[in-house]
Design a protein that fits this description.
15 strands; disordered C terminus; Rossmann fold; 12 helices; single chain; 6-stranded parallel β-sheet; 2 domains; 9-stranded mixed β-sheet; alpha/beta; globular
Length: 378
């Protein structure tokens, strides 16, 4: 069994955890434990639902206004999930060090920390994150990082740490190269050219840059897809050529990207973005869209260095780069994109990660073989 402790919700943006765990579910029985919610229940309870083949999502639900210490109750709930599973057969997979506060008592054959972001730098982060991360690094058998810059920052803190940047589902996003007959309904009336961004809208997005680009080129239309999180929606710039279309399903993204003329990644350059490795970089490229990004380290290398993404630091540079890209698209550029994207996929990345997990000591008889056709042993 694989028990994942996550700070992200399964039914939020479909990203790194969902990509890896849907693949892990072909090998393990996966339980995905989310952070608690505080709803109208009279007593705390654990809500479970099957959200994907082989994956059960578990949500601790506490009464609205619950004022007690939740960790002992979370520990009881987590213990009930593990039940009588042989601890040698259990993989504990952490996305948040905060989960250590209620899982210290659980023994496991392998402990994995998939460090996808520097959570301590995010707005609203608990002051306990850094201490708990140090404890998790001491306990983990394997540590994976979501990008090369994060790996470089932490490679001296663990003996078995590996960089596994988020990957790409090329067939899914390359379908955007086939221009649809009809745009999605909420995009159809937006004039072109369109510059698009998709992802979580939070403190990592440079809203001043977005507004200034829209001001410099009022004939361009900026289409922003994604939920607004941790920032006030009133802070979003409102101009006739900026369109906030909200969260979209992962399976619908190619139909939006197919109607864009360029992809933009207007990230703020701050502590929250210091170690990010945006998954959307290869996704934009697979869709055949030219891309302009602010100077994010894991975008500069490898994508900027390879000439696949333009890097711009100011609104004026951003506009100039987009103008250049839209004026002329070189066939050689798309060929270079395809060569780069051919070197990785979510399947390949998961297989490489799984090899590292198996090397930590989970006996091979406790995981699937191809002949077992998805019948779980763990």
């Amino acid at each position: 069994m694989l028990l994942c402790l996550s700070h992200l919700r399964w039914n939020f943006v479909f990203q790194r955890p969902q990509h890896f765990l849907t693949r892990a579910a072909k090998t393990y029985r996966v339980l995905f434990l989310e952070e608690p919610i505080f709803a109208g229940s009279s007593e705390p309870f654990l809500r479970s639902s099957r959200e994907a083949p082989g994956i059960t999502v578990c949500v601790p639900v506490f009464p609205e206004g619950f004022a007690g210490d939740i960790n002992p109750l979370l520990e009881e709930m987590t213990d009930s999930l593990v039940g009588d599973v042989d601890t040698g057969d259990l993989v504990l997979w952490y996305y948040t060090p905060m989960a250590l506060e209620f899982t210290r008592n659980i023994g496991a054959g392998t402990v994995v920390y998939d460090n996808m972001d520097e959570l301590s730098a995010f707005r609203g982060a608990s002051p306990r994150v850094l201490a708990l991360e140090a404890e998790l690094l001491a306990r983990a058998d394997a540590v994976f990082t979501g990008g090369h810059s994060l790996y470089e920052a932490k490679r001296d803190r663990h003996h078995n740490i590996h960089a596994f940047p988020s990957s790409i589902d090329v067939p899914h996003f390359s379908s955007a190269r086939q221009k649809p007959v009809n745009d999605p309904v909420d995009q159809a009336a937006i004039p072109r050219p369109r510059l698009g961004f998709f992802g979580v809208v939070d403190e990592r997005l440079d809203l001043d840059l977005v507004e200034r680009v829209a001001e410099l080129r009022p004939d361009w239309h900026l289409v922003i897809l994604g939920p607004v999180v941790k920032i006030d929606e009133a802070s979003l710039p409102r101009r006739p050529n900026i369109h906030w279309l909200g969260m979209k399903r992962y399976q619908d993204l190619p139909s939006y990207l197919a109607g864009w003329d360029a992809g933009i990644m207007p990230f703020a350059v701050n502590e929250a973005t210091r170690f990010i490795s945006p998954t959307k970089t290869p996704e934009f490229l697979a869709a055949g869209l030219p891309v302009v990004s602010t100077p994010i380290r894991d975008v500069i290398r490898p994508y900027g260095a390879a000439g696949l993404v333009e890097i711009a630091s100011t609104p004026e540079e951003f506009v100039s780069s987009v103008e250049k890209l839209m004026a002329k698209r070189e066939p050689a550029w798309l060929a270079s994109v395809d060569r780069q994207l051919a070197t990785s996929s979510w399947d390949q990345t998961w297989e490489a990660m799984h090899e590292k997990i198996l090397a930590c000591g989970i006996p091979l008889q406790h995981v699937f073989t191809p002949a077992e056709k998805g019948i779980a042993r763990v």
